[in-house]
């Protein structure tokens, strides 16, 4: 999840003085920031240090990540001319992607047998930032455009699918063992809008890595009603946030789809016995799935005590081997 390293003093020291997106595009620094939480917590996989808006920056969109705010786009995209301007930026070439490929390759080499997860943003979540110009609660402008001008919307989502899919493919080709698509804001959509106006673009994005043979994970927040549709765009594993108990998610998915989730980040601040009981509950509810990737239901809050995260990882490993 995003911000996994942000609670670490070594992360803050390594990042000091470097803007977020510049850190992502410095291969040695991105690799070191990926390795920090793996070293510290002993997790079973790393997630590449990057961001969903990195491919937008690489293709030439004026975007930055403002601390405490999130991605901010200088010129929001609202009209057919705006989408044409995006297309004029040209494709995301291997040359533009070189810092990402290099960062992944360095990280895979350093991780040895520990797998690395690559990721990208889903077209809807990227479009939400592009249309709104920054973070937003309801994504009103994006959802308006979807209905007011469906042709422009479809063109924008198709562009976003190819840019983000190319970014994902570059990571897998450089050595990641899995690929995750984050549709963080899809929860603001009805199932009907998701299926008609968003799912085809997400399928197109995942289509960019289909022939590479890696497993894909598809995650969103507030997406309890969209889980089946999110699997059906072509994902192998469905991520679940803290809002839905995992056994209910497994049931909705028909019992045949591996799930990822869904420790509530809020409980990282509860007394240990409360957190421990919650983690055990999550593991028990996930046991009915054909596979369970244990993680948080959303990002690690920056003020999290890193020692609590290490303790959670130990507990999960102990339960897995039947020692607790
Ligand atoms: O934690 C990690 O290092 C994993 C890599 C990762 C980041 N972003 C790094 C990051 C991942 C997987 C992401 C994905 C991401 N980025 C998503 C999808 C997943 C999710 O959490 O919903 C989204 C929506 C974004 C966009 C974004 N980037 C937001 C909303 C923010 C938070 C802004 C803030 O300060 O509150 C970011 C910044 C960001 N991305 C940070 C990191 C480590 C924090 C940078 C910092 O301030 O040090």
Automatic annotation (TrEMBL):
<dbReference type="InterPro" id="IPR000257">
    <property type="entry name" value="Uroporphyrinogen_deCOase"/>
</dbReference>
<comment type="similarity">
    <text>Belongs to the uroporphyrinogen decarboxylase family.</text>
</comment>
<dbReference type="Pfam" id="PF01208">
    <property type="entry name" value="URO-D"/>
</dbReference>
<keyword id="KW-0456">Lyase</keyword>
<dbReference type="InterPro" id="IPR006361">
    <property type="entry name" value="Uroporphyrinogen_deCO2ase_HemE"/>
</dbReference>
<dbReference type="GO" id="GO:0004853">
    <property type="term" value="F:uroporphyrinogen decarboxylase activity"/>
</dbReference>
<feature type="domain" description="Uroporphyrinogen decarboxylase (URO-D)">
    <location>
        <begin position="117"/>
        <end position="133"/>
    </location>
</feature>
<dbReference type="GO" id="GO:0005829">
    <property type="term" value="C:cytosol"/>
</dbReference>
<dbReference type="GO" id="GO:0006782">
    <property type="term" value="P:protoporphyrinogen IX biosynthetic process"/>
</dbReference>
<protein>
    <recommendedName>
        <fullName>Uroporphyrinogen decarboxylase</fullName>
        <ecNumber>4.1.1.37</ecNumber>
    </recommendedName>
</protein>
<keyword id="KW-0210">Decarboxylase</keyword>
<comment type="pathway">
    <text>Porphyrin-containing compound metabolism; protoporphyrin-IX biosynthesis; coproporphyrinogen-III from 5-aminolevulinate: step 4/4.</text>
</comment>
<keyword id="KW-0627">Porphyrin biosynthesis</keyword>
<dbReference type="InterPro" id="IPR038071">
    <property type="entry name" value="UROD/MetE-like_sf"/>
</dbReference>
């Amino acid at each position: 999840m995003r911000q996994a390293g942000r609670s670490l003093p070594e992360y803050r020291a390594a990042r000091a003085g470097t803007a977020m997106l510049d850190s992502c595009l410095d291969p040695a620094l991105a690799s070191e920031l990926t390795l920090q939480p793996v070293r510290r917590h002993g997790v079973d996989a790393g997630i590449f240090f990057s961001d969903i808006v990195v491919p937008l920056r690489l293709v030439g969109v004026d975007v930055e990540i403002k601390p405490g705010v999130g991605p901010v786009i200088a010129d929001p995209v609202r009209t057919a001319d705006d989408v044409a301007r995006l297309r004029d930026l040209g494709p995301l070439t291997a040359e533009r992607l070189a810092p990402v490929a290099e960062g992944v390759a360095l990280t895979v080499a350093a991780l040895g047998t520990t797998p690395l997860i690559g990721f990208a943003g889903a077209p809807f979540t990227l479009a939400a930032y592009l249309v709104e110009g920054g973070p937003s609660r309801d994504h009103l402008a994006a959802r308006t455009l979807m209905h007011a001008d469906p042709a422009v919307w479809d063109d924008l989502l198709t562009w976003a699918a190819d840019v983000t899919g190319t970014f994902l493919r570059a990571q897998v080709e450089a050595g990641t063992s899995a690929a995750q698509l984050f549709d963080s804001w899809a929860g603001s959509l009805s199932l009907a809008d998701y299926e008609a106006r968003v799912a085809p673009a997400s399928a197109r994005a995942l289509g960019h890595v289909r022939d590479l043979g890696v497993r894909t994970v598809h995650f969103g927040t507030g997406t309890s009603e969209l889980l089946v549709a999110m699997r059906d765009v072509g994902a192998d594993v469905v991520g679940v946030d803290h809002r839905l108990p995992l056994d209910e998610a497994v049931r909705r998915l028909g019992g045949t789809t591996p799930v990822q989730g869904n420790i509530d980040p809020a409980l990282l601040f509860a007394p240990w016995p409360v957190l421990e009981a919650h983690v055990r509950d999550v593991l028990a509810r996930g046991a009915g799935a054909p596979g369970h990737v244990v993680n948080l239901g959303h990002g690690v809050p920056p003020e999290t005590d890193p020692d609590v995260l290490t303790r959670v990882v130990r507990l999960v490993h102990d339960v897995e081997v039947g020692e607790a």
